[in-house]
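Morning. Coffee machine broken again, so started the prediction first thing and wrote up yesterday's gels while waiting. Chain of 492 residues, entered below exactly as on the submission form.
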Amino acid sequence: MARGSNTMLVGRGGRDEATVPGAFGRAQGRGPLAVVAGAFTLAQLALVHPSMGLGWDETVYVSQVGTQAPAAFFSAPRARGVSVLVAPIASWSTSTTLLRVYLALLAGAGLYLALRAWRGLFPAGVLATAGALFATLWVTLFYAPQAMPNYWVAIGALVCVGCFLRARSDRQDRRALWGVAAGAALMALMRPTDAAWGALPLLVLAIRQWRLALVLVAGLASGAVAWVIEAFVSHGGLFERLSEASRIQGGLGWHNAVDDQLRSLVGRTLCRPCTMEMPNPAVTLWWFVLPLLAALGLAVAVRAGRTARTLVPLLCATTAAVPYLFLIEYAAPRFLLPAYALLAVPVADALRHLVTAPDGRWRPVGATLVAVGLAGHLAVQYVVLDSVVERTTADRRDWTRNAAELHRLGVRPPCLLTGHEAIPVAYYTGCSSGAIRGHNANTTKADILRTARTIPVATLTPPGGTPPEFASTWRTHRLDGLDVHIAPGPAA
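Came back before lunch.
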């Protein structure tokens, strides 16, 4: 394939078709992708309240560069990519609405560029459909405008795999090589371990093309270098950080979390422990249809003699999903975003095949089934999204009210909060947060008592909960879903 050519597109019946040449053809290919990306951005702003407060993990990432509260404890599994992403806004503004709008715009631009990375591999209509399928999942719409890493790992995976396929077929395509490096670096900057799992098939396939392998490794290394340096500076070494990250995630090993992921599809943003009943089959049906359509897409690709461009994203989606389906004992739907993004391309190709089946007698049947199925799927996704947005917004309003009440009680910056939900409540209050045990342990009892002599300190417990021994004599106040125990001293 000549550099910049779009002659690899496969048309109906498996025969290659050249796209319209020249600037008109290129513009025609970009148009549908731009429409999908623009609609995705608007959907985020319309369906996910831009004013929705920051979540627990978001407060950790934003506090590293923000001005509202001191930096929260940064545990071993986390990487600095999200903090870098939000720094242009969070470093000077505390407006959550402004941050959400900024992230929604970035998410739309990222989706457009990721789909563009696949140009020449599939028709523009297939890519636009793939983008729409991924963008209309409730988990994609919910997390894209949030300060969280998983959506950006998915975008990096799409860019990396698409450019990898182009570079593998055309060794003179320098833009594709740069895309491989950029996509790999983005994945590793956001979550190095996810990047390693997602790129594993590419590393194997690139063995015989040393330049492509070198570019891929360089991209992964450049994105992960800060995480690795921090491992030696703050965690005692790389293997120590990986071991600590495994412990925080419950110990990596054989754990069948497939059923947990199914339970989380109803809108559970974190299912740990995941003991709830299975959702209504209408909520989980798409999850079972997804691999069937992916298999159909592979069968269509094999028959058309273009196996690699469908098989490779399927392999990468599989390896990206493995740790979250079989190696940890809890679930969060956002963990599988990279797998969903990669599966969207072969699934979109399968849907196109069903709608444009060579046998004309079956086309109306295929088109009707696809239309009805997609309409039902979209309805389910909207219902779940609406529910999770409403519930999440209410939870974060509670944190805002608790912060205001803490200010009224005299706990104002500079201050320190410990105990139940201390990290998010501390962010909203403008305090530091501390823990003497658990995954976020970063202080001691002696340090807490010493701090209480100079600034306001409070310990939080669930309603009716017993405070730690050192706070047993502190005065107690009932807040919205929390009991707060305030140390005598500056706050009093």
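The first strand starts at residue 416 and ends at 419. Going to sketch it on the whiteboard this afternoon.
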